[in-house]
Queue: 2 jobs
Job 1
Amino acid sequence: HFAATAPRPLAGRRAVVTSGPTHEPIDPVRYIANRSSGKQGHAVAAALAALGAEVTLVSGPVSLVDPAGVRVVRVETAREMLQATLAALPADIAVMAAAVADWRVADAADTKLKKDGSGAPPPLGLALNPDILATVGHHAALRPALVVGFAAETGAVEIYAREKLARKGADLIVANDVSPASGVFGGDANTVHLVTAEGTETWPTLPKAEVGTRLAAWIAARLASATDL
Ligand code: CTP
Ligand code: CA
């Protein structure tokens, strides 16, 4: 029975993880979404739980099995995701891996939009969604000891990630290149750069499950060293 002797360095620690896309309604039957599968966020949640953490996974709409030993809260919109994330605080660890829609439709219709005969499409005014990572990273009263964000970028990946580290009040940004050629979205592998105030560490291309496992171990080590001070 290996499980009985598995090290549980995160026992007694609480974690909140966001994962998946958000869906932003246009009307009762239509929404704006993105290509996030939730695989990476769910893998991190599972790996934190495997190290003994008490994990709340706030998940947008995904077609994944709930990770074992994790409390899953399902949401659709960015605003629902923010509320569920704040409700999971206080926590020691926040990992914001969701691909939150940057904008929502400002005035979603209560009834299905119909073609009006003129041929003119309806104007879709957009409103900025709340930034969940920045809200948690800058939270005056309930900021977790370790706040981790992801950054899906194309082009100057590390530069954009470092800017997000500062702007969102994160301790770590896990940055990856999501150019179509990378195959990250929907795929099972990920190539990530760990961007912290101290520097950047690049991991080899790994299965998303393995990235989750290593990230959970990185988090456990970081929390342990902070506690030792
Ligand atoms: N994030 C969030 N809430 C948002 C937008 C992003 O919590 N409304 C989080 C993501 O979960 C991720 C990190 O912020 O951990 C970076 O997301 P990203 O989309 O790369 O950042 P943005 O600030 O939205 O910048 P961009 O214009 O590049 O999309
Ligand atoms: Ca964004």
Note: The radius of gyration is 18 Å.
Job 2
Amino acid sequence: MSFTIAIDGPAAAGKGTISKRLAAHFGFGHLDTGLLYRAVGRLMLTGTEPVAAAQALVAADLEAEGLRTAQVAQAASKVAAIPEVRAALVDFQRAYARRSGGAVLDGRDIGTVICPEAEAKLFVTASAEVRARRRFDELQGNGVQTDYETVLAETKERDHRDRTRADAPLRPAEDAVILDTSEMDIESAVAQAIAAVNATM
Ligand code: C5P
């Protein structure tokens, strides 16, 4: 039996943690689809043409060093606007979604484009200021030198690109449950996400 949970939303809204916790709770697999675009973005920065990179992407590319940097995040959102890049990554994501035993996929277009038939859909969001503050605290915790204003500007730039692109823009599916985590700690966000999925079972 397959069961798909689609989680979409902007950067640093809590999607990643919520997805991991949902997967552990329900015993499902988890695919962070942002890693696919980050891997293509990273290859572009090292000189590979993005469409060719997406078409030739292999599992090892998703485990490469440096996929979580701010520079790769910006490159990812640029290559993610290229329709041929997105098209090259569809089959892998849909196959993962249908794996037996259930799957959680998180990204920007899972509920709208990749898995419109997903059994459960969540759109996890928070204000840009709250998201930038969380990302800034995380970067500081990892010893990265940066300032809040830079992180806020980068967050807004990437959101704007993701929301306004013509192909698969970031937006909630009509049947998604919206979870605004601006004033929630992660434990309440996870509890609400589990309750929303349970309500569909
Ligand atoms: O989620 P993450 O921040 O790792 O995603 C990096 C970038 O990849 C996003 O800013 C977005 O442009 C792109 N992306 C996408 N569709 C997805 C997942 C990520 O366009 N399903």
Note: Residues 77 and 158 are 6 Å apart (CA to CA).
